[in-house]
Amino acid sequence: MLTQKRIALTVITILVLGLLGTSLSVGASSHEDELSGKLEIFSWWAGNEGPALQALIDLYEENYPNVEVINATVTGGSGVNAKAVLKTRMLGGNPPDSFQVHAGQELIGTWVAAERMEDLTWLYKEEGWMDTFPDELIDLISTEDGIWSVPITIHRSNVMWYVPDNLDKWGVEVPNSWDEFLEIAPELEEKGVTPLALGTNWTVNHLWESVALDVLGPDKWEALWEGELAFNSEEGIAVWEKLDEIMEYVNDDYSSLSWQQATDLVVEGDAAFNVMGDWAAGYMSTVLELEPKEEFGWAASPGTDGVFMLLSDSFGLPKGAPHRENTVAFLKLLGSKEGSDTFNPLKGSISPRLDSDLSEYNVYSQSAAEDFSSDRLVGSLAHGAVANEGFMNDFAEVMEIFLNSRSPERAANAAQAIAKQNDIQ
Amino acid sequence: MLKKLNWGKLVVYSALVLFSLLYLMPIYMTIITALKHPVNISLTTAWKLPGNINWGSFAEAYNTLGPNFMNSLYLAVSATVISAILGSLNGYVFSKWKFPGNEIVFTLVLFGMFIPYQIILIPLFRVLRQLNLYGGIPGLALAHIVYGIPITSLIFRNFYARIPESMIESAQMDGAGFFGIYRRIILPLSAPGFVVVVIWQFTQIWNEFLWGITLTRHSANPITVGLAQLAGGQAVSWNLPMAGSLLAAFPVLIIYILMGRYFIRGLLAGSVKG
Amino acid sequence: MQFKSDKIVALLILLPSLILVGIFVYGFIGQTVYVSLTDWGKGAALAKNPEMNLIGLKNYGELFSGFLNSRFRQDLVNAVFYTLFLVSGALGVGLILAILLDRGPKGESVFRTIFLYPMSLSFIVTGTIWRWLLAPRGGINRLPTMIGLPAIGFRWLNSRQSILNFNWQNLPQITAIVVGAAFLFIAFRQWRSGLKKKGLLSLIPTLILLLWALWGARFTPEILPTPEQHGFNLATIGIIITAIWQYSGYTMALYLAGLRGISEDLREAARLDGANQFQYYLNVAIPILKPMTMSAIIILAHISLKMFALIFAMTGPDNAETSHPAVLMYLTTFRANNFAKGAAIAVVLFVMVAVFIVPYLISAYRERRA
């Protein structure tokens, strides 16, 4: 009888200790390996963007051979899945050492507002970055309280892609406004060509911002985000009306295509144009091995010549990063000329630094860099520069309302409502 | 009469064969796609057998998913063992040591089996964080053990209910207590119960996704999360996710084919009233 | 004496499990309900100690009648259709397979293995495989070309078509009519079984509900400012087929166990009564399978009401056409940072599941007590 009780007690003790033990051992290890030399970088760079990241990691490991770099990639276009995973990790008190985030409100509205990031002003001063990055860009990643991330790329959102030979064959020219596009679109359709190639969900948002930039112009575009122009104003509705007209000329299977597949439609001659960020240049030249300017051409999306709608990938320093020293070294590399010029030519983006060595870059990037230094710079919505994540997520629902109802007024009213809800208006 | 019977048989067999083809079609497609070279995969020739076989897909899939595979193995084995022990003890108490309110308590425990896990997701990771278990395999294992209590207790309870009371009573006469009875009577008869529970829990844990994606950091991702990411990337060549699917399906398929009888028993146990 | 202390040991052994279930099931459900009544999600939602204020049922109000939450309402409609079709599809196919196997054809165990193997796979694996099978220009759609027919053009996972549409504003009336019809049915059955008075009593709620739905509703305010159409999205068909493929083996196993349980005597008796095979199954076997059907409905309904992984693997989290409240909960919580609303969606899902499960558990409890 006594032995039985003892066994009972032992079993219970073992169970309890077992549970406690596992928790303690994990707790201990995550503190101890602070100095053990790891660096976990969290991003959504995979596919053809993967090699660029790998080159950067190789460079880091060359400089710091004792640090083991963990490349935590969560795939999914524009980081849709990655952001959700990142959030659970941050909430779980398990931040990666550094994570990819779109520079601007996506970082500030979520992570800076939650006081989860370290101010990097000291790093900017130490590395002399205040002068190497353009002021507008530093403004975008700063609040009154500090500078919050290190930008590594610049991409342009408002670009229209085409195949020059095909346009000649069909006898059309690159439209200078969406109205011009709407004029030539019926001709193209008669020839059995889809006028505009479009892809899944977020690429429609991407198209929306290019259309808005044409309809509103850069001043009113910025006024939207400063709360000075209502989304359901006359101009605001006009954007949706224009989009509604354009949607008549897109491929009808758009919701089943990835952005690459939409690009493929243009390359294969099934469609005439595609509006996509300039990562499409990287895809066409690296993956499809096409010659820029010869086999594919580009222009600012209709009506937006002289305006550069930018987005930027950046990395920050989360509070409580397990390997802070390693992260700081990584951020220094990201901001350096060497790091920037290693990464960007491979990814097909341009460097945010004003002193980058353009000879390393391809034909497209050289032209983009030229525009970057001379154009008016505005931020992108679809890629996190101008609006917080709450708005961006809700905007996807607004787009769904629009695609289902095709009612510009409803969409504009919905957009205004979510702007209010997310403290933009 | 004889003729009629043959007609009936013909209908039955042709229906069975037709259904079999339908059920095997996806696995056929998976295997042939996994064995193709990426350049040979096109939508129009998707059904054709591969011209030259590309075993490399599997090596490549294992290179990517290997760590996830091992994570899932550690997770499923450890959580399954603890689950089975807990379930056996609980089932023993619920069936042989009935206490006042026994049935009510059992019903309340059983309820935990049916809740949609979204309802506990937010508190779950807050608690795991407080326990310092967030992000790793032990935390995920804890979740699987706790939410496995209802089903494992149910299976063992129903299993032990068939052991006649008279055996217990006579053992008690011989002076055996709680553990004595468990060791001398219950445990030796438990083998099939353990097999059913182990197979069931292992399959469930191996296949789980929602917790895997919300409760683990990258290095601790289970195979389902790894596969979802392998297949979710956009410009993918389909041989890789298909090879990955086979890899992720391999352990459970083996168990199923070798021990299908027990698998079915677990399946039915979950739905036959306790 | 010894017996008593053994009882204490038994309880001590059980106690850790009970405490764990108490906290992890009931405690957590309580906490989620609490979060759903707050405004956690505004401003610095991801701060270490986020600000939370109780705001009552506002989140629920927004979900069901807020201008912006139409996706939730469509998801809810999707969940109902997923459940309806998965349950009826799996039951139907499973029954056919079980009847085919009931007579013990040669190679029975091989066939059984084939029909049941999908059940052992993860939703992620099945989803990945079927996404490839249902690709718009390949897979299933190309099957007819093998016998010279034109390819199918249907977009199993991406169709934007929707049928059986109804206006969400009419939901109260539709609910009233459905509930009224249910009462009418009860009244009819009571009448027929001789309870004439009770039957007449049951007619009263029927009349009230129908009258209100057809006439009175005009005077109550609309739940939405503008009409909003919801219906059965055809893009969900691909996912439904996949789920049926995966689960019909389960219903087959369940039904087969039931059919095998029918005594040879009963079968013989039916034959002597002159029943052919068809009549035997229809009139004798299927009624006996009723408890199996109930169990299968419970299990399948609760699975389809929390379906997340399959949709995630097949169409991704962003495809609103095929979405489900379980997917939306994940997005609302972890992407839009709106924890309170995510919790509210989880509670709605929970209530829907509980509607199935609680009566089932209570009846099981009563059976055990009896």
Topology (elements, then pairings):
The complex is a heterotrimer of chains A (425), B (274) and C (370).
Chain A: H1 2-32, E1 38-43, H2 50-63, E2 68-73, H3 80-91, E3 98-102, H4 105-112, H5 121-127, H6 129-132, H7 135-140, E4 142-143, E5 146-147, E6 150-151, E7 155-156, E8 159-162, H8 164-170, H9 178-190, E9 194-197, H10 201-225, H11 234-246, H12 259-267, E10 271-275, H13 279-287, E11 297-300, E12 307-311, E13 313-315, H14 324-335, H15 337-347, H16 363-374, E14 376-379, H17 389-405, H18 408-421
Helix pairs in contact in A: 2-15, 10-11, 10-17, 11-18, 17-18
Chain B: H1 2-34, H2 56-96, H3 102-111, H4 118-130, H5 137-160, H6 165-173, H7 178-189, H8 191-207, H9 210-215, H10 223-232, H11 239-258, H12 260-269
Chain C: H1 2-36, H2 58-65, H3 70-102, H4 108-116, H5 123-133, E1 162-167, H6 171-192, H7 196-214, E2 229-233, H8 237-260, H9 264-272, H10 277-288, H11 290-305, H12 309-315, H13 325-334, H14 339-369
Antiparallel strand pairs in C: 1-2
- Mind telling me the C-alpha Rg of chain C? 25 Å
How many H/I helices of chain C?
A: 14
Average predicted local confidence, pLDDT of chain B: 87
**Can you identify the CATH superfamily of chain C?**
MetI-like
CATH fold-level label of chain C: MetI-like fold
Q: SSE string of chain B, helix = H, strand = E?
A: HHHHHHHHHHHH
| Structural domains of chain B: how many | 1
Q: What overall geometry of chain C do the principal axes of the alpha carbons give?
A: globular
What percent of the residues of chain C sit in helical stretches (DSSP H or I)?
Answer: 55-70%
- Poorly predicted segments of chain C: none
Structural class by secondary-structure content of chain B? mainly alpha
Largest interface: B-C, 95 and 102 residues
Distance between the termini of chain B: 45 Å
What are the key terms here?
heterotrimer; A: 425 residues; alpha/beta; D-Maltodextrin-Binding Protein, domain 2; 2 domains; 5-stranded mixed β-sheet; 4-stranded mixed β-sheet; 18 helices; 53% helix; globular; C: 370 residues; mainly alpha; MetI-like fold; two-stranded antiparallel ribbon; 14 helices
